[in-house]
Specification:
Helix 1 (15-22) packs across helix 2 (26-33), helix 4 packs parallel to helix 11 (301-316) and helix 9 crosses helix 10. The longest helix has 17 residues, at 198-214. The protein is built from eleven helices and twelve strands. Strand 3, helix 6 and strand 4 form a beta-alpha-beta unit. The protein folds into three domains: 15-53, no CATH class; 69-168 and 301-328, 3-Layer(aba) Sandwich (Rossmann fold); 169-300, Response regulator (Rossmann fold, 3-Layer(aba) Sandwich). Helices cover 40% and strands 16% of the residues.
Length: 345
């Protein structure tokens, strides 16, 4: 005769369960859950590990109202690029009557844990992260505290589990270089961003693909990596334009870099676009006011920001997103800084 036994499903872990397992007080576990700073890193790590093992989730539901504050976090500030993002975020947040707290990470693309702990102690309605990413343990920490987050990034390799708004950088690099090749340029240089930033490598990949498509070899000496800032556009532009066999065209990975290239060309007495074509990336407002007006790839920064903010507010209200990844289209804007190469070149 077979004895039938009822099986009682394991109970969900409580704060007391976690405290007993780790050997700390319930108050300490509560402090970790609420992002309090007055817990040692070692104790915090042990509590977080236990919370992960038990897949602990807060039982209290977030309020349906997404009011309060959103944290807008940049890896770094100081350019018109960031201003465009801020304008897009503010347009949506002000309409929703949500305050925006602005901060930056000094160039880091990762969230410092101490910074995150201070933010979580304030219990914001959500985090909007620009070119910076939480680690996997930090994602679990945010989800456990039911604080939504959305990433604004210009690459397309973010984890599928991370809500992200970006744009198609490979296609942008392809469009820019294809335009120069169709004008007749065959010695084209590219100045892009840091090697460890995916969008910089992806734009360079589009640059190479356009050459492959046209059957034109890429000269490795014409591929330069720097920062996306004016100073590197100028520095690398000077290197390229003072070389014995200089390029007839330069594709810059940002409008700011393109401004540096234009300055280098002026300083060397090189006429743009008669002797040198220059093309940028982003289509910042200043691009239409340079002399000559800059041909560039339009990256819809404001639209990226508004879309990401709308997604974050939906998550804060407890709604599900129809998709976690939105890639907006990059478009070529032809102005005055590109032309056919001079016959003698």
């Amino acid at each position: 005769m077979t004895e039938l036994r009822s099986v009682t499903p394991p109970r969900s872990a409580t704060i007391a369960t976690i405290a007993e397992e780790v050997g700390v007080s319930v108050a300490t576990v509560s402090k970790v859950l609420n992002g309090r700073a007055d817990v040692s890193p070692e104790t915090r790590a042990r509590v977080e590990a236990s919370l992960d093992r038990h897949r602990y989730r807060r039982r209290a539901k977030r309020r349906a109202d997404a009011g309060g504050q959103l944290d807008l976090v940049f890896h770094g500030l100081g350019s018109e690029w960031a201003v465009e993002i801020i304008r897009g975020v503010e347009a949506v947040a002000s309409h929703a009557r949500v305050d925006v707290v602005l901060s930056q990470l000094g160039g880091s693309h990762r969230l410092p844990q101490r910074w995150l702990d201070r933010v979580l102690a304030r219990r914001p309605a959500g985090l909007l992260l620009v070119l910076c990413h939480p680690t996997e343990p930090q994602r679990r920490q945010l989800r456990r505290q039911q604080i939504p987050f959305v990433v604004v990034d210009t690459d397309s390799a973010t984890s599928a589990s991370v809500p992200t708004v970006g744009s198609n950088n490979w296609n942008g690099g392809l469009l820019a270089t294809r335009h120069l090749l169709e004008l007749g340029h065959r010695r084209i240089a590219v100045i892009t961003g840091p090697r460890d930033v995916l969008c910089a490598r992806t734009r360079a990949a589009g640059f190479r693909s356009a050459h492959d498509e046209a059957g034109v070899p890429v000269d490795p000496a014409l591929v330069r990596y720097g920062t996306f800032q004016v100073k590197d556009g100028y520095r690398l532009g000077m290197e390229l334009l003072t070389a014995p066999h200089r390029p007839t065209a330069i594709f810059a990975g940002s409008d700011l870099q393109a401004l540096g290239v234009l300055r280098a060309a002026r300083q060397l007495g090189i006429d743009v676009p008669r002797e040198l074509s220059v093309i940028g990336y982003d289509n910042l407002p200043v691009a239409a006011w340079t002399g000559p007006a800059l041909t560039t790839v339009h990256q819809p920064l404001r639209d990226m920001a508004t879309t990401a903010t709308q997604m974050l507010l939906e998550l804060a209200r407890g709604a599900d997103l129809p998709t976690c990844r939105v890639d907006l289209v990059a478009e070529l804007v032809v102005r005055e800084s590109t032309a056919r190469p001079a016959p003698h070149r």
